[in-house]
Amino acid sequence: MIEIEVQNETHQTQARIRFAAVPRIGEGLRLREPDGMWASYDVLDVWYQKAEFGDVWMPYLHVRMTPGEGVLPEDPYAEDYGEYDAGYAAIGGGR
Fold first, then answer.
1. Whole-structure pTM over 0.90, yes or no?
2. Selection from 24, 65, 17, 25 nearest residue 44 by Cα
3. Hey, what long-range contacts does 69-78 have (CB within 8 A, 24 or more apart)?
4. What is the Cα–Cα distance from 47 to 59, expressed in whole angstroms?
5. For the chain, what is the radius of gyration of the CA atoms?
6. What is the C-alpha separation between 70 and 39, in angstroms, rounded?
């Protein structure tokens, strides 16, 4: 198992998680949300840094929630989604 530090852009958190292999850029992961629910995340970046001990390189992942998985209230683009949906007629002819 490989221990990887995952930096979550969506929640601005960091966690160390064990993987069987290092995920590649563009791959998806399922991570547990702070509220206990599972959500999909996309790998944005993978990099390696030399550890403080020996000749060991530690992997790091930078992830963000997959679009469409959920819009968080603190998401700066959340208002854009509301405007996009407002352009369509509602069922029953109301707007």
1. no
2. 25
3. 69/39, 69/40, 69/41, 70/39, 72/10
4. 6
5. 18
6. 8
Please tell me the predicted confidence (pLDDT) of residue 90: 43
Burial of residue 20 (number of CB atoms within 10 Å: 0-12, 13-18, 19+): exposed
Give Cβ neighbours of residue 62 (< 8 Å, ≥ 6 apart).
Answer: 7, 9, 43, 44, 45, 46, 47
Cβ–Cβ < 8 Å for 6, 63: yes
User: In angstroms, what CA-CA distances link 52 with 1, 39, 49, 55, 58?
Assistant: 20, 33, 9, 9, 10
Here the tokens at position 30 are 């399922």
| H or E stretch at 83 | helix 78-86
Decide if 43 contacts 54 (C-beta within 8 A). Answer: no
The pLDDT tens digits for 4-29 are 999 999 889 999 999 999 999 999 99
Strands 57-65 and 28-32: unpaired
